[in-house]
Specification:
It is a single chain. The longest helix is centred in the first third of the chain and has 20 residues. The chain is of the alpha/beta class and 197 residues long. Helix 7 links the parallel strand 5 and strand 6. It is globular and about 50 Å long. It contains eight helices and six strands; from the N terminus they run βαααβαβαβαβαβα.
Amino acid sequence: MSGNQTTLACDVDSTVWDTGVRVREAVFEVTGEMLDVETVTTWTHVLETYGEQITTEIFDRALSPERVAGREPYPHAPEVIRRLQDERGIRVHFVTHYWNPDAMTPYLKPWLKENFGENVGLTVTIGDKLSILRDLGAFGMIDDRPDTLERVAGAGLWAATVIQPWNRKVVAENPKVHGFSDWREVLELLSHLPPAR
């Protein structure tokens, strides 16, 4: 990798914070039931379990921009992302999907800056993440979705993920997708990169 490829893209949901916690809270608020996260691992499962109307209410509560401020990052994610920026000279740019980017950005951007540093970038999109990575000149991405991970790795970029029930298979089967259970492992996964100049 050349010295000028110093941008790392990073997803948000189920990557720097535990979206499952918010989904479980929303399911309990709406239905009074505790969600079995080993069985219900995707929005499709939630839809099949609770139907369209209840799933829509759960989705709206769990992913509400107004609730961003109350989210907690995964343990060690803030320290690791700050170290990548401060010690390794890697620019971190968050790239996340949301159906209404204009509604999410004013809530998400301050949260990201508070937790991960003033210099982090943000793109909230309804479009293709891979094209955004190309525009950024990113060398890789940390994401949780198997299809995104496969496409990033397939494009010759570095790909990694917090291991989740829905992406264990891609980590096990694709040697170009790096899995980690603790954010501190990312420092070792990226140790092959030369320091930025």
